Inverse folding.
């Protein structure tokens, strides 16, 4: 019987593990693939407080080693579901069931890909899913943002302060995001809208040199020379396997506020998998700390410790 089982070994999950073991709890972290989450693919992180420059891999490895060094157990197993019993939880994995007193869901969310050839190999070579993470690397250069929601508009707004030119590519002729942001971007001389268009090909051998786009109305094919491409067409949380116990919002995210408490007592959600407006390393780490301390308080109240 573990005190806390954490599902996911990204920034939120490993931060939760650190706080959990430091509070004297037995903690098991379960991860289907490898530790670190999305940040592992970032060549350089410059926006985490107190660390001026670090690669995503180094950052994730530091968290992993810190959690392990403090006494957290990590197993690389896929979690299939979570079940609630009378007084504890069963975490069902591909290798059987594990019992615990509290669960922290830190499964993150995957960036929705464009679905074009060579997309995965271009990540970190001019292609990014996080403008606030990587935008500063493209100062005085030409970039493009793909998307039509508020995230894409915010990314274009952010990049316009760094870049010589920003193309905003959207598959429709109107944006889903807020009108005031659209008007603000229209007023900027270095922002150009490319509407009714989709990216069909990434140009460049080892790094992004441009994108090939197709106009959905006319069928016209054209190329844009860009140094960086930022994809902002949504994220895909992986929470459906927990939905029988935990309520999800319309986007599939765990319904949990800043206290990280879900609709099921004893289950907490931390990081990108929960409902929130800002998804950054700093907020993921904060969620991990909050969720772990809340789980510890829940266990103490239940066990009288």
């Amino acid at each position: 019987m573990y005190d806390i089982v954490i599902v996911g070994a990204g920034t939120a999950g490993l931060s939760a593990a650190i706080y959990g073991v430091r509070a004297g709890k037995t903690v098991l972290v379960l991860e289907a693939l490898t530790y670190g989450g999305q940040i592992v693919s970032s060549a350089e992180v410059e926006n985490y407080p107190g660390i001026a420059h670090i690669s995503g891999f180094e950052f994730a490895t530091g968290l992993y080693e810190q959690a392990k060094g403090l006494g957290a157990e990590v197993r690389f197993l896929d979690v299939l579901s979570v079940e609630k019993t009378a007084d504890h939880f069963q975490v069902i994995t591909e290798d059987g069931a594990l019992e615990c007193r509290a669960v922290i869901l830190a499964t993150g969310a995957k960036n929705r890909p464009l679905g074009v050839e060579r997309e995965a190999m271009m990540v970190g070579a001019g292609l990014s899913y996080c403008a606030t993470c990587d935008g500063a690397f493209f100062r005085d250069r030409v970039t493009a943002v793909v998307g039509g929601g508020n995230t894409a508009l915010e990314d274009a707004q952010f990049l316009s302060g760094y870049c010589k030119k920003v193309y905003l590519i959207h598959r429709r002729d109107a944006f889903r995001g807020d009108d005031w942001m659209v008007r603000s971007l229209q007023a900027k001389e270095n922002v150009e809208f490319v509407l009714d268009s989709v990216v069909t090909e990434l140009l460049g051998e080892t790094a992004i040199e441009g994108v090939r786009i197709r106009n959905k109305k006319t069928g016209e094919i054209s190329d844009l020379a860009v140094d960086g491409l930022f994809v902002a067409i949504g994220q895909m949380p992986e929470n459906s396997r927990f939905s029988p116990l935990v309520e999800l919002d319309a986007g599939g995210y765990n319904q949990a506020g800043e206290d990280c408490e879900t609709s099921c007592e004893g289950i907490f959600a931390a990081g990108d998998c929960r409902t929130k407006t800002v998804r950054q390393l700093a907020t993921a780490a904060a969620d991990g700390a909050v969720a772990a301390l809340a789980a510890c308080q829940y266990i103490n109240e239940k066990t009288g410790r």
Q: What stands out?
A: The longest helix spans residues 281-303. The first strand starts at residue 2 and ends at 7.
